[in-house]
Amino acid sequence: xxxxxxxxxxxxxxxxxxxxxxxxxxxxxxxxxxxxxxxxxxxxxxxxxxxxxxxxxxxxxxxxxxxxxxxxxxxxxxxxxxxxxxxxxxxxxxxxxxxxxxxxxxxxxxxxxxxxxxxxxxxxxxxxxxxxxxxxxxxxxxxxxxxxxxxxxxxxxxxxxxxxxxxxxxxxxxxxxxxxxxxxxxxxxxxxxxxxxxxxxxxxxxxxxxxxxxxxxxxxxxxxxxxxxxxxxxxxxxxxxxxxxxxxxxxxxxxxxxxxxxxxxxxxxxxxxxxxxxxxxxxxxxxxxxxxxxxxxxxxxxxxxxxxxxxxxxxxxxxxxxxxxxxxxxxxxxxxxxxxxxxxxxxxxxxxxxxxxxxxxxxxxxxxxxxxxxxxxxxxxxxxxxxxxxxxxxxxxxxxxxxxxxxxxxxxxxxxxxxxxxxxxxxxxxxxxxxxxxxxxxxxxxxxxxxxxxxxxxxxxxxxxxxxxxxxxxxxxxxxxxxxxxxxxxxxxxxxxxxxxxxxxxxxxxxxxxxxxxxxxxxxxxxxxxxxxxxxxxxxxxxxxxxxxxxxxxxxxxxxxxxxxxxxxxxxxxxxxxxxxxxxxxxxxxxxxxxxxxxxxxxxxxxxxxx
Length: 611
Ligand SMILES: Nc1ncnc2c1ncn2[C@@H]1O[C@H](COP(=O)(O)OP(=O)(O)OP(=O)(O)O)[C@@H](O)[C@H]1O
Description:
alpha/beta, six-stranded mixed β-sheet, disordered C terminus, binds adenosine-5'-triphosphate
């Protein structure tokens, strides 16, 4: 908000930057659009001159008779040409402009999307980032285009105005100066309105996000079941309605306030123009002016007044839109993780020894207390470790730190003794693979769902089939009508919906498809049936044989297969060791294990006693 204070400077800088960014996006369109605008700017002046010639010629024909007719028809032919040329040029320039604007829109949409994929993951933990992203999504392309259109309109109107100014100057210099003075109140009104509207957009962004969220929830497939069972649609609708009318009222009030100011300003401007035209009538009454001159002066005053009003509006809109574009440029200039493209495959770093953390602490930006506290941990290349602990212990957060997705708030994460940051973090991620708890259901084909973890190998059908087999998904895929080409997800025509467990198998296949040294599986069997879980865990060690693997799980049965178990509690490691050793220790792990085992035993007891 600081930049609201230094408004003029921001405006100039942002416009300069916008032109610099936009020019390379379509040089030909840029130059041709400017040329067309220049020609279209001159045409009204030519028309004004033509009107004067025609009116004077008609007066001559009335006075002198048919001798003057021939020249009159010549002038009419020119007038016809002008009538045809003006709309033709307008249409052609409109088409050119459309193509140019499409190019700009595409480039900016792509930039914002790429930016969203490149910012550090931690940005997604701050509401300010979502606000900025929402504004950018709501239209960097269209706002930039609007800025350009305003600029071009101002440029075209200025050129036309120069023509009118010459006509007015030719009579008296004071005429044009008066015209300029009359429009100053309107200009100030639009300028202030532009600034206020921008401030309102910034202020209302969180409300807009809330509205979008509520609308999405009420219309989404995910929430549709609960909405019908719990019937809370009316409640959500009422919340949405309250926010909608609050923001709408604020906008209406602002518009109402400025409508009054604009009307007052325009009244001043129109009164001034009428006074000027009245003065022409007075001069005309003294016989100093031809009828043609009177008509052209009248037209020059009326048209330049309308142009100046339009320009005042355009300047106000330009101001508002430029501030919004500046806000989006702030997002585009925000810090990024090291550039994935720049960290080339040839720079690929090979994990050879050990991943470790030294007194690692991590705090989410929205929280005051550390989620991970002072964790010192290491995993050797090839080792398989299970991380267990109660809900909220910090398991998922910890593995995200190990994957280089979150940076340490204090302490260090080291890969083969080197800190995990910058290029090294990007290089490290190229060697990692993961299945997160909230893995994505891509509404793409089965093949794409599996192969996008190595998009460059998407055509390797054998490898895709092998990854599916490793995750126990082959049989299910082969039963689908189009097998690996089947489209998943019902939102699109022909899409198939899978069960939760089958989606999880697809997510596992995706993780296995990626050639990675390090793999993290966060609750990989949560949605699997007992048979599928047993099958996956049975061959898990074979699948990850060559890899370093971490499995986060609440199903403690699978801990028997790993080399080491780490128990997290309140963001700290409280126990570490093998299954047997931890049971013998009779601590946190043993307590959790027995709680689960007892449940199975109790059930089996019930079954036994019942039979
Ligand atoms: N994005 C976030 N922003 C703020 N706090 C978060 C965020 N994600 C998780 N937390 C908090 O961090 C703590 C640890 O969460 P985490 O998901 O790492 O636990 P977990 O051990 O994986 O839990 P579970 O077994 O339920 O999956 C919790 O108190 C949680 O509320």
